[in-house]
Amino acid sequence: MKETDIAWAAGFFDGEGCITSSKPWYALSVTASQNEIQPLQKLQELFGGNITSPTRNRKHFYWYIYRDEASTFLQLILPYLVVKKEQAKIGINLRNNGKFIQNRWHGSGLSVEVLEFRKNCYTELRRLKNTYRKVQYE
Fold it and tell me: What distance in Å separates the CA atoms of residue 59 and residue 101, rounded to the nearest whole number?
């Protein structure tokens, strides 16, 4: 992969992307949305993932990746990020240090400590997003 592709992806993602962790297990996910599909197809070509089409309720195309794929993507673009750099660091940390400890037939497979770590990452991601919104619109 060319360094220029990684830099392009970081710039695009800084403006159009989102790093999230969703309940109940606080798993890492990365998404980007656009009215035009071409930039998302380029992300998919470079980094994998899936693209969903617009529906009656959703007016945009969405590109998304999860877990290890999301962490790898964030690690690659991290040096070029400006707006979402701190969020990316939390996302990478969430995936690297908040993994399942084992597969269990019953229960989530998460220890209490790992689940608490994931909750803290989730809370910090939300705080950073709210801080950015306040600065942007003040």
Answer: 39
Domain that holds residue 50: 3-137
CATH number at residue 50: 3.10.28.10
Domain count, the chain: 1
pLDDT in tens, 42-82: 999 999 999 998 777 777 899 999 888 999 999 999 999 99
Entry pTM: 0.81
d(Cα 101, Cα 87) in Å, to the nearest integer? 24
C-alpha–C-alpha distance, residues 13 and 83, integer Å: 9
pLDDT per position as a tens digit, 29-50? 999 999 999 999 999 999 999 9
